[in-house]
Amino acid sequence: MSLEGVLNTEGSNAGGIFVQFNQDCTSLVAGSSSGYHLFALTPDDGVEEIYASRSGQDTCLVDRLFSSSLVAIVTVAAPRKLYVCHYKRGTEICNYSYSNTILAVKLNRSRLVVCLEESLHIHNIRDMRILHTIRDTPPNPRGVCVLSPDVERCYLAYPGSSALGEVQIFDAVHLNAKCVLSAHDSPLAALAWSMCGRRLATASERGTVIRVFAVPERTRLYEFRRGVKRCVSIGCLAFSACGQLLAATSNTETVHVFRLCEPARDDAPPDGWLGWLSQAVTAGAGYLPGAVADVLAQGRAFAAARLPASGHRAVVAVTNVPKGGAGNAGGAGAASGAGGARLLVATSAGVLYVYALAAEGGECTLLRTHRLIEDAAPAHGDARPRPDGTPTS
């Protein structure tokens, strides 16, 4: 749920603000030229800034440990140095320097992992001691890696090849290799763990197919086709807390949501030509070439949201607003009704979009637009929101 590889060759934020949701998607962090900011996501589809460092240091990476006071920071001025801070006290807990540029930082309640292009450093979150270093990993210039939020299944996933979509799974508690997944034919672009640490979502640089595996069993559970018209760059994958929905952002204006549970079956045939085609594929699977049958049998998006502007990196989260929690702030949020699933999309333009995700799927409705950092320039095509967070006309 982060924007990986945001540093360009000059060592600055590549065209925008760094944004990332915390591990349970209850808050959002942003790094900008003025420092870093922490935001709480409120039950009325709002956003509340709870801290702004205003250090004047261009911050290119920041992560918060759940809803605690612990934050990890990397600045443009010192891209090889990690700062771990207690933001409520305004104090630095420790700092570590590494041999190369830090590309990603991952946290859970047991471990902190620092990703460099050809190594991974695993720290004990309690005292920040380095417990283990995975050296000579395949070149990983985008810093693609994910750490499971669940400490009982504290697995670290990272690319096992720079030519193929191979995933290495490492046990960050027992400090040993767990298994290897052959996920794609092309190099990996994005990874995501479910909250329970039992499922891993993968996408390759081709961007057409997203797969979900059971870990450590290495069983392929689901396969989804994002589209058939063009290859895209997948920027972020994210599971819902319940593990039944998976969202994906890309370099296009469309955010896709896939459902990981089979819909209830009845005697009525599926709607539409895709439903008819699915039935035909099932009936004639033995007569079709294997590659053709695989493509036709892949799942399609359950829901989708269209961003007002494209061309910005985006991270996504699927959350749930309790009944009676939404609509208290008036405006478009009030019209959305009581509670329900939400699709949250934060972009490197410094904007957070809040969409209603209907139980039946389909097109998601834009409820709120929040500009996270006021000095950020509006994205092309974005309307600056009103003070209550609703979109302007």
TrEMBL record:
GO terms for biological process: autophagy. Pfam families: PROPPIN. GO terms for cellular component: cytoplasm. It comes from the Eukaryota. The keyword Repeat applies. Gene3D superfamilies: YVTN repeat-like/Quinoprotein amine dehydrogenase (2.130.10.10). SUPFAM superfamilies: WD40 repeat-like. Keywords: Autophagy, Repeat, WD repeat. Belongs to the WD repeat PROPPIN family. This is WD repeat domain phosphoinositide-interacting protein 2. It comes from Papilio xuthus.
